[in-house]
Amino acid sequence: MSQSIRADFPILDRQAHGEPLVYLDSAATTQKPQAVIDAVSGYYETMNANVHRAAHALADEATQAFEAAREKVRAFINAPTREQVIFTRGTTESINLVANALSQRLSPGDEILITRLEHHSNIVPWQMLAQRSGATLVACDITDNGDIDLEDFARRLNDKTRVVAINHVSNALGTVNPVETLIGQAHAVGAVVLIDGAQASAHLPLDMVSLDCDFYAFSSHKMFGPTGIGVLYGKRDLLEALPPWQGGGEMIEHVTMEHTTYNVLPYKFEAGTPNISGAVGLGAAVDYLTSIPQADLVAQEDRLVQLAVSELKQMPGVRLVGEPERRLSVISFLVDGAHPNDIGTLMDRQGIAVRTGHHCTMPLMERLGTPGTVRASFSLYNSQDDVDRFVAGIRKAQSFV
Ligand SMILES: Cc1ncc(COP(=O)(O)O)c(C=O)c1O
User: 89, 194, 300, 352: least CB-packed within 10 angstroms?
Assistant: First the structure.
């Protein structure tokens, strides 16, 4: 199956350093299928205009394409209404939007609960909110295997907890977190829950109704769409009640020099000209993703990741970092006697793209006692051959250190 999927991604035909490219950095950003590239260029070739307030044919077509993309995203995540799908620049901006909009709701004595497993995008906005509001940021621990420590989570959750923010899938270790359970526990103490779905949206079926989180954030570029666009889903009553976080065009209903009334959802949270071509590209990415049977997608990726994990476990001098109960797409590891960056460079020379460093999870790396790891992350276009080249690439890198 992966051969035909692979053919949809033109970049995978290129070479790196004279070797056929093995792309194992999809957790950082996925490659784009031709259908997405065509949708973005097609938008500029045939209908480019600013959206809403349409007074001419192009503006009307651009608006329809932009809003059609919103509807595709709504269906993709099973959000009850399109007004609950807010376009942002990406996961980071979605989380910052919520953290800013919640400012007036928190005060000294309140707590914000996150975990040690978070990306900086799901730490720093909450730190800033804590500084603004006087609330306390609390971080629940993880186990040595890289799972959320569920007992510690339950211990730290209490009636002072106002916000809980957790990733669905860890970008550094691939841990799939039991978000359904954690959302239930957080709601039981009256906390609002945000799920950082940056690493989940390309891999897991998403259903906002059954998940029941209050907010869900994700990025288009990690699910085969363009960069610079992402989504914040929110429960309607919360979105209605929260104030806008950025002011400008689009988000207003009426402006006088003294006073402004705000637009309805979702526009209240979409100040300024949006990333129209990005939304159109994201819509095409959703179409692409939904054209592939979910079961095939998961089975193929899982098989490759499990194969790579079992190969790495047998390699002398290679140590896996994190062995979570349920893993998706990502493998972090260290090679004895070598800095992760050196392994990354030696693999790059062989045409193999992996990522090295702290993966924007410095508190997690500190907890695991390492400044960084080598990370390979898989996607639906990877193949058995990629796993073979990856394993051979580590062996060769080892021979140089
Ligand atoms: C788990 C997680 N959260 C948040 C982000 C931030 O995403 P973006 O840079 O697209 O805003 C990333 C990106 O790597 C991520 O992996």
Answer: 89
Residues 204 and 330 in one domain: no
pLDDT, mean of each 10-residue run, the chain (401 residues): 84 97 98 98 98 92 98 98 98 98 97 98 98 98 98 98 98 98 98 98 96 98 98 98 96 96 97 98 97 84 96 97 97 97 98 98 97 97 97 97 86
Output the residue whose Cα is nearest ligand 1's atom 16.
Answer: 171
Residue 88 corresponds to which amino acid? T
250-256 contact pairs (CB < 8 A, 24+)? 250/52, 250/274
Q: Facing residues of 87 across strands?
A: 231
Q: Is the CB of 167 under 6 A from ligand 1?
A: yes
CATH code for position 198: 3.40.640.10
C-alpha 121 – ligand 1 centre gap (Å): 6
In this predicted structure, what is the pLDDT of residue 389? 98
Which residues are within 8 A (CB) of 55 and not within 5 positions of it... i.e. 6 or more apart?
A: none
Pair 160, 67 in one domain: yes
**Residue 54: what pLDDT?**
78
Q: What is the CATH number of the domain that holds 306?
A: 3.90.1150.10
pTM: 0.98
The Cα 138–Cα 140 span in angstroms is 7
Q: Is 186 helix (H, G, I), strand (E, B) or coil?
A: helix
Q: Is the CB of 276 under 6 A from ligand 1?
A: no
Residue 260: predicted pLDDT: 96
Q: How would you label 85-122 residue by residue, b for 16+ Cβ within 10 Å and e otherwise?
A: bbbbbbbbbbbbbbbbbbeebbeeebbbbbbbbbbbbb
119 lines ligand 1 (CB under 6 A): yes
- Alpha-carbon distance values, 64 to 60, 61, 88 (Å): 6, 5, 18
- Co-location of 259 and 133 in the same domain: yes
Query: What range defines the domain where residue 375 resides?
Result: 2-26+293-400
